[in-house]
Amino acid sequence: MSTGYTRSELISLQKFYSDQLLKDTVPFWFPRSLDKEEGGFLLMRDADGSLIDDDKAVWIQGRATWLLATLYNTVEKKPEWLEGARSGYEFLNRHCFDKDGRMFFHVTRNGKPIRKRRYFFSETFYVIAAAAYAKASGDPEAAEKAREVFGKCIEYATAPGMLVPKFTDTRPSKGIGVPMIMINTAQQLRETIGDDRCDEWISKWIGEISRDFVKHDIACVMEQVAPDGSIIDHIDGRTLNPGHAIEGAWFILQEARYRNNDPELIRLGCSMLDYMWERGWDKEYGGILYFRDVYNRPVQEYWQDMKFWWPHNEVIIATLLAYLMTNDPKYAKWHHMVHDYSYQVFHDNQHGEWFGYLHRDGSIAQGAKGNLFKGPFHLPRQEWFCARIIREFLEDPGK
To answer: What's the domain range around 92?
Structure first.
């Protein structure tokens, strides 16, 4: 792997990701997860696909709607994908908004509210779902709703007191999650239906990440910082999430592609990937550790050394994208390592899809494929995106 990927290897990888997506991952979820009685999706599923709970996580309803609409827009115009996206979009509109305009986090099968959180990630997933559905269906109301809720997300992200501080007013902080998720939300909105606000706000959010969260002097990307960007030297403030930071790295690399391979953004994204690969890769067992301490002190959360599915999806994307954009064989080596590890230990050869939660040594901690946080998003997005970027690179290496 010292010389990177050959063209034939990239062709094989592209086919692998496409086949996994369309022959393994998507068929695990659909059509069985379509709720034909109440609308939306039944996504809390065991290893074999059997239903373990009929509640509905609003995040995952939005993500599944986005996936089906995106497959319809970019892979094949299958009527069942469009119909599934319509069902998800309508369920979100009908049941998932509270009277104050905010969205719930967790509802019953028929849409009665169970839980609501102060942060606004349900809204961001609604934006990408509605925008993708608007493009697929041509529905102008869906486009209008996507832009309207995006505007609310900007307000939520910038309004003082809108978000619960990690440490309350006694120890105020801010997290990298808000600028990260808003970058990707704006990128999806811009690609599907367009919005004049996106470029300016993406630049602001990237600037915030670069200024306050990326610490070049200690080769690290912080998860939480004080409002002025300084490190909070307490357990929570020192806790890093390498896979999350690497997800942010590929959002920035993707923005560099959009901006004609902007060299400053490439350097920023690759630095974030470099720093957090070094901190996150488990040199003993392989895979990405879930939490680390910025000063290598003990981490509080008991799952700190587990292997979760989604960081591996994000690292597969980031390493591949970094390689295609820089031609640095280091990134091909890393991609090969994380790809091989992930498909060996997470993939379920019997029933398809990935297990979500492994012990550090790669053994399965529990078999659920779907719950309040896991569903058809990180894995299918990874397979869809990787197949797409390899195809684009093979067609135009300078793109």
So the answer is: 37-164
